[in-house]
Amino acid sequence: MAKRLVIVALSVVAAAVVAIGAIVFLPGILPAQGDRPTAGDGITTEDDDDFGSVDIYRVVDGALEPAASGLTQDVWDTFVRVVTPDFAAEVMSQYRVGDAPDSDTLAYVYQDDDPDRWILATNLATSQDKPSLIATLVHEYAHILTLDGTQMDRAAGSCPTIELSEGCALDDSYLRSFEQQFWAGYDDSAPTPDNSDSDVAYDFYLAHEEDFVSDYAATNVVEDIAESFMTFVLEDRPADATASVSAAKIDFFWNYPELEAIRERIRTEFADDLGINP
After folding, report:
1. Do 96 and 59 belong to one domain?
2. Domains in the chain: how many in total?
3. Sign of dihedral through CA atoms 255, 259, 264, 267?
């Protein structure tokens, strides 16, 4: 499961706070109680380790069933704008919505039983600040882009590259290329690809601060590529990609025209929300 616990402090998401294991509510990031429809509307609910309880919506041709409203619908609409309606219709199968002010999880995605379909879960309590929400959803989009069936071999026996629950990273995948360029040189102290221990991540970050766009990026290579992609989308291209490892990570994505096109589309779509020039 690919989660996002924190938001990197970028100039375009100035309301965000870097923290491992905690969310700090600043002005504009307030609990969203009352924005979820009631169970009587035909919504299925389920206990969730991160959000306590979630409302579950099916995604049918990119639309929610049953119909949603309020912040629940707004968050979904924002996600569709990030990924495009065609992507949402083709790839997404379920949308899970929680409202947990005490949770340190902002959102997460994971594969459905059909590995070509994905599930998005979001926390309404941390979704009211639009720039922070956009950044989070770009991060989750990055997970799908880097872990889908074009990037992972799901039928591999032994895995010679990066073995994850989503499969074995293909030699020419974004993740494998990123890992070879930026993680292969670390010693055995580097977090494993499936690490979720925030203490391990933060200790590693403190030892290599210049290498990461955020402390959360040091969790593992999967989170690193997602945080770096998010920064690639939301920030200007580094003037000098050799200035630091983190700058080189952001510059990495310009090697892929299809990812540059995604960046340009998202920046154009959300230029007013983010206060940026596309």
Report:
1. yes
2. 2
3. negative
- Structure tokens that stand for 112 in this block: 């459905």
Cα separation, 77 vs 176, in Å, equals 32
**Residues of the domain holding 106:** 30-128
Residue 188 within any structural domain of the chain: yes
Close Cβ partners of 94 (under 8 Å, ≥ 6 residues apart): 56, 57, 58, 59, 112, 119, 120
**Is residue 4 in some structural domain?**
no
70 plus 115 within the same structural domain: yes
The pLDDT profile of the chain, 278 residues, written as one tens digit per residue, is 665 554 433 333 332 322 222 232 222 333 334 455 554 567 899 999 999 999 999 999 999 999 999 999 999 999 999 999 999 999 999 999 999 999 989 999 999 999 999 999 999 999 999 999 999 999 999 999 999 999 999 886 799 999 999 999 999 999 999 999 999 999 888 999 999 999 999 999 999 999 999 999 999 999 999 999 999 999 999 999 999 999 999 999 999 999 999 999 999 999 999 998 87
Same domain, 234 and 158: yes
Could you give the count of Cα atoms lying within 13 Å of 31 in the half-sphere of its Cβ? 9
Question: Angle, nearest 10°, between helix axes 221-234 and 257-269?
Answer: 60
Residue 117 lies in a domain: yes
Q: Per the domain annotation, does 1 fall within a domain? A: no
What pTM value is reported for the model?
0.87
Other Cβ atoms within 10 Å of 145 Cβ, number: 21
Residue 167 tokens read as 């499969």
Rounded Cα gap, residues 121 and 109, in angstroms: 6
